[in-house]
Amino acid sequence: MFGHSKASALTILFTAGASAGALAQNLPFTVTEVADFDMPWALEFLPDGRLLVSEQRGALKLYESGTIEEITGVPEVAFGGQGGFGDVVLHPEFSTNNLIYVSYAEAGDADTRGAAVARAKLELTPGGGALEDLEVIWRQVPKVDGGGHYGHRIAFGAGYLWISSGERQKFDPAQDMQANLGKILRLNDDGSVPADNPFAARGGVTAQIWSLGHRNPLGLAFDVQGRLWNVEMGPQGGDELNLVVRGANYGYPIVSNGDHYDGRPIPDHPTRPEFNAPAAFWNPVISPSSLLFYSGSEFPEWRGDAFIGGLSSQSIVHIEFEGERAREAERFAMGMRIRAVEQGPDGAIWILEDGRDGRGGQGRLFRLTARSASGQ
Ligand SMILES: [Ca+2]
């Protein structure tokens, strides 16, 4: 469906504008513009190659061969600040159960908000589709005011549902075991708590916790060996890539290789070795929006490596691993804020441009392919 011949018929290569032309020349892949969305946040491929794209204002779109259709029945979202519609992920057995998971900012009482995760059956029709039997299976506790740091990335792996939960720009909840903010949670696919979770005996939302001391984890993904990693926004400096370990505390806001935005220092990781240190960190920041472990055939030399979408860095950061150590191998200057990075069924890397700045909220979808495969 996304073969080269069909894609090239409806795509626009970077030919308009000197900066875009220079960009294309310097990158080791061909960048093909595919479609435009309104403040897109996440993308997820269906088994048949069609593409779901969430839009932050509260829409779910289905893209196929130049056509964008609507998926109805999405939950009402609290759009504002960093919040709105978030992630969209298929159940690993979607082909037989049609289950889809979405995350979003949900309004609470007295001007509070919190991330929520719902699951539903995706019923596809010729003109689009609908979410049926939508059921909220997880919520941030407590809901707080403000509109930042929801996190709410969803991943499946090792037989469980994993959710990254940001600390909502409230700092201390990341260390509060009575809150599920600033944590990575491990759940069964219906939202119930596995009996062997590290803090299961303590009940409540504490039982959901797999790891703590996270700030705003926007990327959550398993590598080819089955290990879970997250990327999270640091404060002023100190963006982190972490190997997510059972029961571990990553130290925020007690330690960070960055410092508070108001200038107050935060002790660096080496001062408190009892907290898990990042496998890699960035000063100055890259502003990681998303994390992909690549396993496709389009770029065979990159199999097993990771790619981080960068917002303020306007880049895709290529990560190489050696055991539990990680390092930035190279950084691709994309000239736009990268909101999402995903691998397509064709092995191409698909990215979403962040729509927050300028262009009326528009964020473009691009497909990255090997230069040789495209005859360039
Ligand atoms: Ca520091």
Write the layout of secondary structure elements.
Layout: H1 4-10, E1 12-13, H2 18-26, E2 29-38, E3 40-45, E4 51-55, E5 59-64, E6 67-72, E7 85-90, H3 94-97, E8 99-107, E9 113-125, E10 128-139, E11 151-157, E12 160-165, E13 183-187, E14 209-212, E15 216-222, E16 228-233, E17 239-243, E18 280-282, E19 288-293, E20 306-310, E21 315-322, E22 325-333, E23 338-343, E24 349-353, E25 362-370
Parallel strand pairs: 6-10
Antiparallel strand pairs: 1-2, 2-25, 3-4, 4-5, 5-6, 7-8, 8-9, 9-10, 11-12, 12-13, 13-14, 15-16, 16-17, 17-18, 19-20, 20-21, 21-22, 23-24, 24-25
The chain binds calcium ion.
In short:
The chain has 376 residues and is mainly β. The protein has helices at 4-10, 18-26, 94-97; strands spanning 12-13, 29-38, 40-45, 51-55, 59-64, 67-72, 85-90, 99-107, 113-125, 128-139, 151-157, 160-165, 183-187, 209-212, 216-222, 228-233, 239-243, 280-282, 288-293, 306-310, 315-322, 325-333, 338-343, 349-353, 362-370. The model is unreliable at 1-22 (pLDDT under 50).
Describe this structure in words.
By secondary structure, this protein is mainly β. It is built from three helices and 25 strands. It has an eight-stranded mixed sheet with strand order 3-4-5-6-10-9-8-7, with no helix packed on it. Strands 1-2-25-24-23 form a five-stranded antiparallel sheet. Strands 11-12-13-14 form a four-stranded antiparallel sheet, with no helix packed on it. The longest helix is centred in the N-terminal third of the chain and has 9 residues, at 18-26. The radius of gyration is 20 Å and the shape is globular. Residues 1-22 have low confidence and may be disordered. The structure holds calcium ion.
